[in-house]
From TrEMBL:
Domain of life: Eukaryota
The organism's taxonomic lineage, starting at the top: Eukaryota, Metazoa, Chordata, Craniata, Vertebrata
Function: Odorant receptor.
Subcellular location: Cell membrane
Originating species: Merops nubicus (Northern carmine bee-eater)
Keywords in alphabetical order: Cell membrane, G-protein coupled receptor, Membrane, Olfaction, Receptor, Sensory transduction, Signal, Transducer, Transmembrane, Transmembrane helix
Name assigned to this protein: Olfactory receptor 14J1
GO cellular-component term (any): plasma membrane
Length: 247
């Protein structure tokens, strides 16, 4: 449990727990009490935590792809490149960057004047829905910040893809079938989590307006905000034979 992979899995587990706790309890409480209200402060806190955890998850998944790359492509240097100090530094940098990103977005979003009422077309507070309520002239600054964040996320995605291209090239050169199977099985959970996380997020934010509808938007929101953190523990747990037998 003290290996780098499990250290980063611990970070991912904390993120998943935080993501679920940020959106689902409030939505469930509103559903049970027959209300759709959230306080201004509560909305700001929810947006901050959601952006913080979302940004952090992208960073941790990127670091985990580097972990898999070093483990398979540079196994003799694994202890040097991913020592305990290096792992702590990378995790701390990921948490700090996520915090600063969330602080910037939250402060900027909630500094905008709202001209379109205060009803969000969403079951939790997120930036695009709040920007719809703001005065169009004042939302350009936040749109530029969103573009920068999207570019950084795209850079992380490219890094992950390049890492896996190198991993697959190294695995296919392995002479032993057992070695190839072991390497693929080590990468499969992370690859599944990354695919689920990015595919649901990209579909939610890049889907064509022509297919948009309130019911579809709700389903898509649940897909990218609730399903990945709920499914991630199951994906990684299925590597455990005892859990497989129990299921």
């Amino acid at each position: 449990l003290h290996t780098p992979m499990f250290f980063f899995l611990l970070n991912l587990a904390v993120l998943d727990l935080g993501s679920i706790s940020t959106t689902v309890p409030k939505a469930m409480a509103n559903s049970l009490w027959g209300t759709r209200d959230i306080s201004y402060t509560g909305c700001a806190a929810q947006l901050f935590l959601f952006v913080f955890l979302f940004s952090e998850e992208i960073s941790i998944l990127t670091i985990m792809s580097y972990d898999r790359y070093v483990a398979i492509c540079k196994p003799l240097h694994y202890g040097t490149l991913l020592g305990s100090r290096a792992c702590v530094h990378m995790a701390a940098a990921a948490w700090a960057s996520g915090f600063l990103n969330a602080l910037l977005h939250t402060a900027n979003t909630f500094s905008l004047p709202l001209c379109q009422g205060n009803a969000l077309d969403q079951f939790f507070c997120e930036i695009p829905q709040i920007l719809k309520l703001s005065c169009s002239q004042s939302s350009h600054r936040e749109m530029w910040i969103l573009v920068v964040s999207a570019s950084l996320s795209f850079g992380c995605c490219v890094f992950i893809v390049v890492s896996y291209v190198e991993i697959f090239r190294a695995v296919l050169r392995m002479p032993s079938q057992q070695g190839r199977h072991k390497a693929f099985s080590a990468c499969r959970p992370h690859l599944a989590v990354v695919s689920l996380f990015f595919s649901t997020g990209l579909f939610a934010y890049l889907k064509p307006p022509s297919i948009s509808s309130p019911s579809l938007n709700l389903v898509v929101s649940v897909l990218y905000s609730v399903v990945p953190p709920a499914v991630n523990p199951l994906i990684y747990s299925l590597r455990n034979q005892e859990l497989k037998d129990a299921l």
